[in-house]
Amino acid sequence: YRCVDCFLPRVLCKKCTVIMHKHLPFHRQEEWEVGRGFWAGKSLGNLGLIIDLGHGGQKCVAALPEPRRMTIVHSHGVDEIGVRFCACLDDELESTPAALQLISHGLWPATWEKPVTAFTVEVLKDFHLLALQAQLPAQDFYRYLQRRTNN
């Protein structure tokens, strides 16, 4: 695997690629297709990367064992990535809502209750600037992101 977005990328195995990108979950990856003779796009979510919220990116000891599969929209496109939420309890014996955990990590949830889709702040800023400067409709921006994901 090689990273399209890293400066001076190295060819790495799957496990090392996931480890190296633990805190860069939206970098685009490519896998060498031996039989076809070219590099094909792969998302880190497809390689098994899981975003752990809370605890500095480490898994919460109280988190559910299975991460929630989420659709994350960012400036490189649309990815499905597993997200593991912190389930620690506060002084009032309540856990922080999933939406607030996403927001604290720069992801804006599409819904407040049990979000399964989120947008990076970066992609929201990109859309805002393009909508103001080029009068780009939201539907065209989303089509652009779909093409960036899998042209």
TrEMBL record:
Pfam families assigned to the protein according to its UniProt record, in alphabetical order: CxC2
All residue ranges annotated as the CxC2-like cysteine cluster KDZ transposase-associated domain in the record: 44-151
Superkingdom of source: Eukaryota
Protein name as it appears in the record: CxC2-like cysteine cluster KDZ transposase-associated domain-containing protein
